[in-house]
Design a protein that fits this description.
alpha+beta, Umud Fragment, subunit A, eight-stranded antiparallel sheet
Length: 294
């Protein structure tokens, strides 16, 4: 009997240790996601099961679990990574609008995968459909950008108009920016133009309630002429520019929403036919977008 109980205890310990190791790996090293949409075609297809590296940028941890009780945005802390986020990296992040489009807030159960097109300190524009970063082209899906450049300007308003959805600025999928991506510690002048672009980001970071009065920006009785950003902000774009809810519509994404870097397609299954796409198994996710003719 003692021998039997001892064997049972050993199995329980092995099972517990195995589960603990698996949990630690998911928290600190890697994670896995199944892709439901075509927003990253041709790089990632619906039904792809991807591996996400959390170590490169540093694993993201919650400082506490208070957000589970009061529904606030979680406070996070990131471990030191060994590689910065670079232009072209494919990133998994939390959707930035948990309740409404009026306020940036981490959606804990909704995850997006997009390509990082601009990092903090970059200035991004869209000129006739082509992304430019710091004045240079060659970012994202160039084939789709060329097609967009050649299309007639007759898109529906829901597709055509973009962040910050202000008619006085008038940005759209063909003509967007210039948009400066703030770095942590950057101090920018706040006028009526920058207010219209950055007010959600400022409200998210500082919880200040800003308003425009008489051509100036106020928070209550305080005149706001400058603001120092507390986070790094990134511009994320889908490779399928025809059907991607990305930073053109969401706006910039704060660093604390970033989970990790998508590096590998482990398996792939067609969501309609349920057939495996064997040629996509163990395919590396590249920083460059393949031409559809490759």
């Amino acid at each position: 009997m003692k021998k039997f109980l001892k064997n049972i205890l050993q199995y329980v310990i092995v099972l517990f240790v195995s589960l603990l190791i698996a949990l630690l790996l998911r928290l600190f090293v890697v994670d896995f996601y199944t892709i439901p949409s075509d927003s990253m075609q041709p790089t990632i297809e619906p039904g792809d099961f991807i591996l996400v590296d959390k170590l490169s940028f540093g694993a993201r941890l919650y400082k506490n679990l208070d957000f589970l009780k009061n529904g606030t945005t979680p406070q996070t802390w990131r471990m030191k990574g060994f590689s910065p986020i670079r232009n072209g990296d494919v990133i998994v992040f939390n959707f930035p609008y948990a309740e409404s489009w009026d306020q940036i807030r981490m959606h804990l159960s909704c995850f997006f995968v997009k390509r990082c097109l601009a990092i903090p300190g970059d200035t991004l524009q869209i000129k006739q459909g082509f992304y430019t970063v710091n004045g240079q082209q060659g970012f994202g899906n160039l084939y789709d950008q060329q097609m967009l450049n050649s299309c007639p300007d007759d898109f529906t308003p829901e597709i055509y108009h973009t962040f910050p959805f202000d008619a006085r600025i008038g940005w759209n999928i063909l003509r967007f920016g210039p948009l400066y991506l703030p770095r942590k510690g950057d101090t920018l002048p706040i006028d009526t133009l920058s207010y219209r672009i950055y007010h959600k980001m400022i409200r998210y970071e500082s919880h200040l309630s800003l308003e425009e009065r008489d051509g100036q920006i106020w928070s209550g009785d305080s005149l706001i002429e400058h603001y120092t950003f507390h986070s790094n902000w990134y511009f994320m774009g889908g490779d399928n520019i025809w059907n991607s809810q990305d930073s053109r519509y969401l706006g910039p994404i704060p660093e604390e929403f970033i989970i990790g870097k998508a590096i590998l397609i482990l398996t792939a299954k067609d969501p309609e036919t349920r057939q495996y796409r064997w040629n996509r198994f163990f395919t590396r996710i590249r920083k460059e977008v393949r031409s559809p003719f490759e």
